[in-house]
Design brief:
The chain has about 300 residues and is an alpha/beta fold. The chain contains twelve helices and twelve strands. A hairpin with a 2-residue loop joins strand 1 and strand 2.
Length: about 300
């Protein structure tokens, strides 16, 4: 069965005859008649009763017409949905974010985006930078907002926001009355660190390396998979940690934690919007990317 023959059959019934159908489709009546005959041969039964100028569907014709009506309605619906997708006003946006930008920046960015494009469904995945980069390589997401530069030629990295890392101690810690701490002192105290693959941990370890400091295994109390666990560990007196200032704003304001700066200078980093090279972004992703870069505030 050819779809063109089915469409002609459908239009003949819709227009109540070959004459009007031929005019509507800009085809000759013989062309329409031949198409219907070929359709009848394909399905093995008569579909139309031709009573002079009047055309009446047979029982088989009525059955096929009902299916044809549903088929062509779905076709129009599909074309409409594709047009919405092409115009960027509908679809799904697949985003990834490492812990800090994913928790403290992406929700606001997504909320602003959704106000403009409410029909676009946003799917957001949060994980450590290394995991998010893997998702991007394997095309499970289109864009990622991460907390550090990924040295991978398969990615395009666009700097977009800034962040500062601080050393946090509990309000009862011996360092609680201090405002700064040296990199050397940090290497000699009990530390809580994020897991391997975390951008904030990589930035911190690079700073220590620049000052010739190596963390001894006996000083590494725990490696944890999130900033909340780091905060709770510090509050419990297990040790000190280095986290984004954004992640502890509430605890600092309430006096539960104290933030110290490193004597080597502020520990700053840049967030990057990451995309895979050679991978065509959807229009929704292109618009989200433009929104993020328009809000560029590198500190």
């Amino acid at each position: 069965m050819k779809m063109r023959h089915l469409e002609i059959f459908y239009r003949v019934i819709e227009e109540a005859g070959f004459t009007k159908a031929a005019i509507a489709m800009r085809l000759t009546q013989p062309t329409l008649s031949a198409a219907v005959r070929q359709l009848e041969e394909a399905v093995g039964t008569q579909l139309l009763n031709r009573l002079g100028r009047e055309v009446v569907p047979t029982e088989a014709g009525r059955l096929l017409y009902n299916y044809a009506r549903r088929i062509f309605a779905l076709r129009q619906e599909a074309l409409g949905e594709l047009e919405l997708l092409r115009s960027g006003s509908k679809g799904e946006l697949l985003l990834g974010g490492s812990t800090i930008p994913g928790t403290y920046l992406l929700p606001k960015l997504v909320a602003n985006f959704s106000k403009v494009y409410p029909q676009i469904r946003v799917n957001l995945r949060l994980a450590a930078t290394a995991i998010i980069a893997k998702d991007l390589r394997e095309q499970r997401i289109e864009l990622a907002l991460i907390g550090g530069l990924v040295e991978d030629k398969r990615f395009v990295s666009l700097p977009c926001f800034g962040d500062e890392l601080v050393v946090i101690v509990s309000s009862t810690h011996v360092w609680a009355n201090r405002t700064t701490i040296s990199e050397k002192e940090l290497g000699e105290t009990e530390l809580l660190l994020r897991e391997d693959g975390s951008a904030s941990r990589r930035v911190f370890e690079l700073r220590l390396k620049e000052h010739g400091v190596v963390i001894s295994p006996e000083k590494l109390i725990a490696e944890v998979g999130g900033n909340e666990a780091l905060k709770q560990g510090v509050l419990a007196g297990l040790g000190v940690a280095v986290v984004s200032k954004m992640a502890v704003a509430g605890e600092l304001a309430r006096g539960e934690l104290v933030a110290l700066e490193l004597t080597g200078g502020p520990l700053k980093r840049v967030f990057y919007l990451l995309q895979a090279k050679g991978f065509k972004l959807s229009l929704a992703a292109e618009r989200f990317k433009a929104q993020v870069l328009a809000n560029e505030e590198i500190s």
